[in-house]
Amino acid sequence: MSTNILDNEKHHKNLMLIDTHLKSINDNNKSSFKKCALATQYGLIPEVRTVILRKWVLKRQTLMFHTDLRSPKVKQLKHNPNCSLLFYSQTEQIQLRFRCRAHIHSHNRLAQYIYNETTQHQRELYEWDQAPSTPHPYSSLNEAKRHSQKINLKSAYDHFCVCVCNFTELDCLSLKKEGHVRFLYKWDKHGTLSATTLVA
Ligand SMILES: Cc1cc2nc3c(=O)[nH]c(=O)nc-3n(C[C@H](O)[C@H](O)[C@H](O)COP(=O)(O)O)c2cc1C
């Protein structure tokens, strides 16, 4: 049964709690909401991998992560921007599954702004001359660095991109001894939110 979210204290509280958990990634490096699984589809083949959540803005319905512009996941998202982000917190016993559309930002103001906030360590990930997921003859990045002609230190920004995932649905499952609780939140194109209780 769908309800108007604004009339419902229970949903308001639940969303505020989710907001607090996902905001915690900024001050708590050990937050279990820091890592999530990103699922994409390329043709008929699904693919899933771990990414680090870098930013969450509930009001804007956005989740963001950093990646390499040349990576297979970016190719897949450009081909089909529909994707899913999945979080599970063992501590909170909560699973969050977002249905999103991804937008890749590179060489623009947002990418530059976020790149300026990255650490040297993060930038190093993008300095590699060869595209991610292509085979190389070295067993580690350190070994590759010793063959420094393979590294182009200036190209990190060129390879860096921000993936902004705009979500329209959130399936929230809370595991509880007294009975699991599951809600499906949906935002329409005006940003109006509705909630449905689902069988867990
Ligand atoms: C804990 C963890 C965090 C990761 N975070 C990211 C990330 O934020 N961005 C990213 O592009 N890859 C990240 N990866 C690597 C991806 O999971 C994946 O292996 C790689 O990006 C290749 O994915 P693709 O071939 O689908 O593009 C992470 C891996 C692990 C294990």
Short description:
This protein is α+β, with helices and mostly antiparallel strands.
Radius of gyration: 19 Å
CATH class: Mainly Beta
Mean pLDDT reading: 90
> How would the global form be characterised?
elongated
Q: Structural class of the helices, strands and pairings?
A: alpha+beta
Low-confidence stretches: none
Number of structural domains: 1
Helix content: 10-25%
CATH superfamily: Electron Transport, Fmn-binding Protein, Chain A
Terminus-to-terminus distance? 14 Å
Give me the count of strands: 10
Bound molecules: flavin mononucleotide
The arrangement of helices and strands along the chain is: EHEEEEHEEHHHHEEE
- From the 3D coordinates, which CATH architecture would you assign? Roll
What is CATH's topology name? Pnp Oxidase, Chain A
- How many helical stretches? 6
Describe what you observe in this structure.
It is built from six helices and ten strands; from the N terminus they run βαββββαββααααβββ. It is α+β, with helices and mostly antiparallel strands. It has a single domain (2-123, 161-198), classed as Pnp Oxidase, Chain A (Roll), CATH 2.30.110. Strands 1, 2, 3, 4, 5, 6, 7, 8, 9 and 10 form a ten-stranded antiparallel beta sheet that branches. The longest helix has 15 residues, at 9-23. The chain is elongated and about 60 Å long. It starts with a strand and ends with a strand. Bound molecules: flavin mononucleotide (FMN). Residues 35, 47, 49-52, 65-68, 71-73, 132-133 line the site of flavin mononucleotide.
